[in-house]
């Protein structure tokens, strides 16, 4: 198949690449034991109302606390876990842990009604068993369904069969919220999404990045701002909430608020942090 790589291109031994492949293989091999040893941890990142500044939700983001390598971000192992199918076990651990933490916040700070938002990999969402898994996580932890949000990417919303996941309606019927993650980077469109039981769109970081820290736009004619404006208007016409991802500055937050974006998430509102940091923020009260 080397020929298929292109005329005039030859497979050359590349020591850097093979070192990378070996590191990758070592990480994959270590995943199941890491799950058994309890080496995964969840960090939570605030999702904040742009109008009131109140923390309405937190997104659960998994990290691997590796005994030798330290804290490893999901970008280095989620893809591998998906390819090997390990994402199912890891994803279930994430879901149960997030529901358990959220139930504790709900019990301790009932008036905050803090929602926990959990990422579902395409492979998990595509598995018909996901509905029972979610129902069981809610039942065993006692978390009210409306305090759980599930984030799916546009491609995960479209199942492997190329049509919208049948589980979506069954998940929505449980009473959980469904969000489309990284919206604007995939192929779905709003006209299509309106037929699905989706509650929220998370606008992908690059649109927000286009709104620069100094309030100007990367593109002189404010193209990214106008895209955000159009997406927010359409989303609201379809009665969807909009969360802007990767908000890094106060100027961006102010522009997004002016564009009627509902909520924001990003370093400006707080970096992902251990559960205790969220508890402390809730304890801090309305300033949260
Ligand atoms: P995502 O769901 O889009 O999560 C948001 C990512 O943006 C997180 O990266 C977060 O740390 C990062 N981020 C936070 N604030 C800022 C900011 O101000 N600017 C920018 N540019 N980025 C910011 P993280 O934690 O590395 O996660 C990366 C991706 O890994 C996530 O993207 C999600 O797709 C995946 N992931 C994380 N946890 C899980 C999980 O439990 N299950 C599954 N299936 N996927 C997960
Ligand atoms: Mg990362
Ligand atoms: Mg997400
Ligand atoms: Mg995202």
Automatic annotation (TrEMBL):
Domain spans labelled EAL: 24-286
Domain of life: Bacteria
Coiled-coil regions listed: none
Protein name according to UniProt: EAL domain-containing protein
Organism: Micromonospora parastrephiae
